[in-house]
Amino acid sequence: MIKFLDLQKINLQYQDEIEAKLIQVFRSGWYLMGSELAMFEKNLAQYIGTEYSIGVANGLDALRLILRAYIEMGLMNPGDEIIVPSNTYIASILAISDNGLIPVLVEPDINNYNIDVFKIEEKITSKTKGILIVHLYGRVVFSAELEQLAKKHDLKIIEDNAQAIGAEWNSKKTGSLGDASGFSFYPGKNLGALGDAGAITTNDENLAKTIRALANYGSNQKYVNIYKGLNSRLDEIQAGVLDIKLKYINHENDIRRTIAKHFISNISNTKIILPENPENEKEHVWHLFVIRTENRDSLQSYLSENGVQTLIHYPIPPHQQQAYKDWNSLSFPISEKIHNEVLSLPMSPVMSEEEIAKIIQLINNF
Ligand SMILES: *Cc1c(COP(=O)(O)O)cnc(C)c1O
Q1: Domains of the chain, with CATH numbers?
Q2: Active site at which residues (predicted)?
């Protein structure tokens, strides 16, 4: 069987280094807020190209904490609106509503599945305070138009960089393009931990300080609490493992690019719509290789019967979720079409040439 993602194989590439680190941290007796976290934060900031990086417990917390910090800083207030793509993973939207902010959904561009920048301005009101962009599937969404729009309306650009670590726009990495960025190191992400983990990057010193305090019970100084904070920490074991895997992320993303190129040049079934390969290949890190077809469910069963595991990212659009009942009667036709037609093929840095060839052949025979 060709697995959708073979996490065991991915992590065993670095078995000696990772196991040595696990033993080192175990024996050190120091498990939180130590040298492993400090080192990973320093290296992540350097890699992304920002002044600050803060390790937190997971990707959802990273996004929640950015918005919460803007509220504590007086730059946003509960009831304010944040623009977000209507086809994103639910976590981007949860981070907004969790803070008492109002998510305002904007449809994606059907050609690249990212928020349609030209549909944003019509949704901006006097309450709009930010745009939460999501580099979905690993594809950068950024442009001079987006930057100008944010400047014109005095909006913060927050990046959900959970799926696109290592991608670049204009020689700058995602995570350094907007005002602040949230990362997830969930095991299945391109840079994956051995459990939950996340981070925030920014060049804003005040924001970084506020987030650091908020993630630590609202405290900068032990037993002195400025905010009603939370506990969101990246532990020493995860930080140590991530610091090892960070050294290999460019190499792994390059392998993903090669596989994507191979799929795109060789899948030739007219029933299948392939993902757009950006002119500048740095603009995609292929967290997911997502194809589209009207016969999605039968293609998925056919591949499964022939030993190829696939997934759907995502089967139900946010506005049709029970969690957001107020939106259930709204219509977002492009999102709905995407959710009905997309299928994610296996994609990882450890796939063999035979596996790739088999997937291509099966799809061409469908
Ligand atoms: C994975 C993911 C998140 C959430 O990250 P967790 O670490 O699972 O909390 C947020 N946004 C997007 C787009 C994601 O893919």
Answers
A1: 7-243 (3.40.640.10), 249-365 (3.90.1150.10)
A2: 189 (proton acceptor)
Protein residue with its CA nearest to atom 4 in ligand 1: 59
pLDDT of amino acid 327: 98
Nearest CA to ligand 1 atom 2: 162
Q: What is the pTM of this model?
A: 0.98
Contact in structure between 363 and 272 (CB atoms under 8 Å): yes
**For all residues of the chain together, what is the average pLDDT?**
98
Query: Is any ligand 1 atom within 6 A of the Cβ of residue 96?
Result: no
User: Which tens digits make up the pLDDT trace of 215-258?
Assistant: 999 999 999 999 999 999 999 999 999 999 999 999 999 999 99
**In the chain, what is the straight-line distance between the N-terminal and C-terminal CA atoms, in Å?**
18
Does the annotation mark 189 as catalytic? yes
pLDDT digits (tens, 9 = 90+) for 61-84: 999 999 999 999 999 999 999 999
CA atoms 71, 74, 77, 82: torsion sign = negative
Residue partners of 78: CB distance under 8 A and separation at least 6: 71, 99, 100, 101
Task: Select which of 127, 189, 209, 261 is catalytic.
Answer: 189
